[in-house]
Amino acid sequence: MSSVPFHRVSHSSRGIVNKDTLRVKVWRSATRGLAAFDVPRHESQTVLDVVTFIQRQLQPDLAYRFACRVGMCGSCAMNVNGKARWTCRTHVSKVAVNGELEIAPLSNLPVIKDLVTDMSAFFDKWSRAKGQFSGERTRHDDFARVSPESAPRKAADAGIECIGCGVCYSSCDVVTWRPDYLGPAALNRAWTLMNDERDTQARERLRAVAGDAGCHSCHTQATCTERCPKHLSPTAGIAGLKRMTMKAAREGDL
Ligand code: SF4
Ligand code: SF4
Ligand code: FES
């Protein structure tokens, strides 16, 4: 996408640019370039508010995605001035540079249209990493009792709040270099399940993440952890998977 020269188009909502106006460049698929818009500034304005203004007032065919507006669903993630973020929780005042914003779709994912990416590969990798819980109890059994104080429970808790937004995946250089790499979110999910005492697929999951495109491809520079809006640390979980797979390999248990 970045190799295509940007085609700039200008649309003004009020005809003039002043300090109460934000200059916003937005990726449009039709022209394979950035289109520029002038958007009125408001107090407490979020980047999602800006995109919504453009779609409602200036370009009705602009495609973008959101649902909850409060940082719960993860669907509004986009690149804002070069970094992946939740747009609904990103205030313009924190990210605008000289009154300007550049908004593009998430990196490392195919673009369906404008700011909307196809997340299929992202979620397929959760499946490849055996990111589904597999228990053995039935509805007729009592609930499992897992102590909140146990070390595995604490490790699982530390990664469990992932909402699958793709910010970490979009920020990961290794995914860019080798698209088959499972990536931080799928590996973080695998780590939480490896620490779930009720799960029965530990060996299969370790095999799934130990391969060439798995945890050992991570370079541990922690961009995923730095960018995760939930303040999770996929890097720490991946390091845990590296230790587990090495131990299992040494013991002939992989
Ligand atoms: S780990 Fe964080 S950044 Fe990555 S998908 Fe989950 S919530 Fe989003
Ligand atoms: S620490 Fe690993 S998973 Fe996270 S961004 Fe870097 S290479 Fe990707
Ligand atoms: S719209 Fe749901 S997290 Fe932003």
TrEMBL record:
Residues 152-180 form the 4Fe-4S ferredoxin-type domain. Residues 22-109 form the 2Fe-2S ferredoxin-type domain. InterPro entries: 2Fe-2S_ferredoxin-like_sf, 2Fe-2S_ferredoxin-type, 2Fe2S_fd_BS, 4Fe4S_Fe-S-bd, Beta-grasp_dom_sf, Helical_ferredxn, SDH/FRD_Iron-Sulfur, Succ_DH/fum_Rdtase_Fe-S. Pathway: Carbohydrate metabolism; tricarboxylic acid cycle; fumarate from succinate (bacterial route): step 1/1. It catalyses: a quinone + succinate = fumarate + a quinol. Its cofactor is [3Fe-4S] cluster; [2Fe-2S] cluster; [4Fe-4S] cluster. Its EC number is 1.3.5.1. Keywords: 2Fe-2S, 3Fe-4S, 4Fe-4S, Iron, Iron-sulfur, Metal-binding, Oxidoreductase. PANTHER family: SUCCINATE DEHYDROGENASE [UBIQUINONE] IRON-SULFUR SUBUNIT, MITOCHONDRIAL, SUCCINATE DEHYDROGENASE IRON-SULFUR PROTEIN. NCBIfam families: dhsB. Belongs to the succinate dehydrogenase/fumarate reductase iron-sulfur protein family. This is Succinate dehydrogenase iron-sulfur subunit. It comes from Paraburkholderia acidisoli.
